[in-house]
């Protein structure tokens, strides 16, 4: 602290504790955790992100094409897929119609028809 007459001025940057490693760091070196509830230092944030990247798969890769059945709505023409063996009532997710047919068209079929 530096004294300017009767007024005291703080020259130190406030420090905050990392919720992960408990190290005291300045606010420039903090980030929110993925859940948005905790402040963690950049070192811990980087370590967590690298670990998550190594262990997690993208959501789109969790199902193969063989796990899904293609459907098309007769009312609105919307095309969608559903997991094989699902117990959900078959309805169009776009318009809600129950007039659903199995979609046997492939992208190549559509290109060939043009």
Can you describe this structure?
- The protein is α+β, with helices and mostly antiparallel strands and 114 residues long.
- It is built from 2 helices and 9 strands, in the order E-E-E-E-E-E-H-E-E-E-H.
- It has 2 domains: 55 residues, no CATH class; 52 residues, Rubrerythrin, domain 2 (Single Sheet), CATH 2.20.28.10.
- The protein is 18% helix and 28% strand.
- The relative contact order is 0.10.
Chart the SSEs and their pairings:
Blueprint: E1 2-4, E2 7-9, E3 15-17, E4 24-26, E5 30-32, E6 39-41, H1 42-55, E7 68-73, E8 79-83, E9 100-102, H2 107-112
Antiparallel strand pairs: 1-2, 3-4, 5-6, 7-8, 7-9
Keywords:
single chain, 114 residues, alpha+beta, Rubrerythrin, domain 2, 2 domains, three-stranded antiparallel sheet, two-stranded antiparallel sheet, 2 helices, 28% strand
Beta strands, count: 9
Q: So what's the oligomer here?
A: single chain
Q: Which class of secondary structure composition applies to the elements?
A: alpha+beta
Task: Please outline the major beta sheet.
Answer: 3 strands, antiparallel
Which radius of gyration do the C-alpha atoms yield? 28 Å
As a percent range, the share of helical residues equals: 10-25%
**Run of helices and strands:** EEEEEEHEEEH
Beta-strand residue fraction: 25-35%
Quick synopsis:
Helices cover about 20% and strands about 30% of the residues. By secondary structure, it is of the alpha+beta class.
């Amino acid at each position: 602290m530096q004294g300017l007459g009767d007024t005291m001025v703080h020259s130190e940057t406030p420090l905050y504790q990392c919720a992960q490693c408990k190290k005291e760091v300045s606010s420039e070196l903090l980030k929110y955790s993925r859940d948005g509830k905790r402040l963690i230092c950049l070192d811990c944030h980087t370590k967590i992100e690298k670990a998550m990247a190594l262990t997690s798969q993208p959501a789109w890769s969790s199902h193969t094409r063989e796990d899904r059945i293609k459907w098309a709505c007769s009312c609105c023409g919307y095309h969608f897929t559903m997991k094989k063996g699902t117990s959900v009532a078959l309805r169009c997710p776009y318009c809600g119609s129950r007039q659903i047919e199995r979609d046997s068209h492939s992208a190549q079929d559509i290109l060939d028809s043009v």
